[in-house]
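Input record (one chain):
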Amino acid sequence: MQKITVAMGDGIGPEIMEATLQVLQASGAKIQWDPIEIGEQVYLSGNSSGISKNAWESIRRNKIFLKAPITTPQGGGYKSLNVTLRKSLGLFANVRPCKSFHPYVPTKHPDMDLVVIRENEEDLYAGIEHQQTDEVVQCLKLISRPGCERIVRYAFEYARLYQRKKVSCFTKDNIMKLTDGLFHQVFREIAVEYPDIEADNWIIDIGAARLADSPEMFDVLVMPNLYGDVVSDITAQLSGSVGLAGSANIGEKCAMFEAIHGSAPPLAGKDLANPSGLLRAAIMMLNHIGQPETAEKIKNAWSCTLEEGIHTEDIFRPGLSKEKVGTRDFARAVIERLGKLPKKIKPVSYAKEVQIRIPAYQRKTPGKKVLQGVDLFIDWKGSNPDHLGEKIKGLHPEFQLKMITNRGVKVWPEGFEETFCTDHWRCRFELKENNAGTNILIAELLIHAIQNDVDVIKTENLYTFDGQRAYSLGQGQ
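The corresponding structure, as predicted from the sequence alone:
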C-alpha cells in the first residue's frame, strides 16, 4: 500500500480531486491518502509561502504528491507555490503528454500524439531579478550542465520506455549562444548514446511554428524551462483542450502530479468542471509508483467514457456528444466502465515494473580558467557614449576599455547616433597583454571607478576555458 500526499486545492480543486479519488478507489489502486492543506487559505492565514511545515513534512515523507489546482491571492507579494514546490523538491522534469482524441474532442490535428518534457528548475525561472537603474531591470537566465544532462537524458529514457521514435530539442542558440548553446550541445552529446532513437533540433521560433501547423511530425520534445512552459500549453490546446491535460513533475526522490489548468474560481461549487486533467495526472502517478495495470484500467475506462459521448460541458458538442454530465457523474461514468476496453480509441498497455532511472551526475575535469577582463555595468544619465568613453577609458593602467554597449548593442567606439540608449551601460575592460590576470586588479579597477564618481552597479568577469572565449560579444562586434 503506497501512501500518497493529497491536496484538495482551491476553486474547482476539491470537486475534481474528489472525483479523481473516487475513481482511484473504485479501480483497486493500492493507495492510502495523507491529506494536507495548501494554497489560498494558507496564504491568507499569514503564511506567505502558502504551505505549512507539516505539509512539507508529509510530502517529503511520502515522496509522492497528488495536487489539485490552487489559487495564489493577488497582490501582497505572494510567491508561486507551484514554482516553490518544483524547485525545493528537485522536481527537474515536467512531463506533459498531449494526444488528440478526435473526433470526441474536436481538433484540427487528429493524428497528434506527442510529449513535452520541460526542464523544471533553471532558466529564467531561477527568479533572480534586479532593478539596476531608473530605466532598466534584469532577469538572469541560468543554464547548468547538470541540469541539461538530467533533462535531456530523461527525455531519451522516456522515449525508450514508452517506445517513442524521436526526440526533438527546442532552443534559441542562434541568439543565446552560451546558455541555450549549452543545452543544445548536451543534447547532441547524449543523443549519440541512443542510436535507436532519432534526434533532431529546432530553433524555438520555427519549431513552434511547425508544431502549431503539423504537430504530428513530432514525438518527444525536450527544451529549457520557459519555452517548455509556453509550448506545453500550446500543444495541450492543439490536442483539443487544456482542460484534459495532466502533468508529472519528476525528481530523484519526490514526484508531484497535477492538472495543467488553474483553479477556475468562477466554476467552483457548480459541478461543471472536467476532472480529466487531474485524473490523467493520477494515471501518470500510478505508472510512476509501479501500478501500471491499474493505470491501464482507468485510462481505458476514461477512453470508453469519452467515445461513448458522455462529456462534461467544456467538450460537449451537440450532434457528437450523447450526454452532458457534471463532475460527479463523469467520475461515475468512468467507474462504471472500469474493466472495459475502448472500441475506437486505441487501448493503452503500459510497461510493467520499469522505471526511469537517471545516473548521478559525474562532474567533468575542470577546464583551464583564465581571467581576460571584466564587464562593468554603469548607471550613467548621459546620452553620448563618446563622453562616457572619455570619462572611463583611463581608469586603470592594466586595463584597456574595448567597447561600450547599451542593451547589448555596441555604441562605442564607432557607434551609430540612431541607436537608442538607456541609462544602463556595459563597459568592457580587457586586461592588457602579458598580464597575469589576477582578481585583485578588478578590485583596483572598481576603487578607481568609485574615486572618479562612476556608478558601477554590477560586474561580470570575463574568462576563457581551455582557451575558448566564454562570454558574449556585443551586437555589432
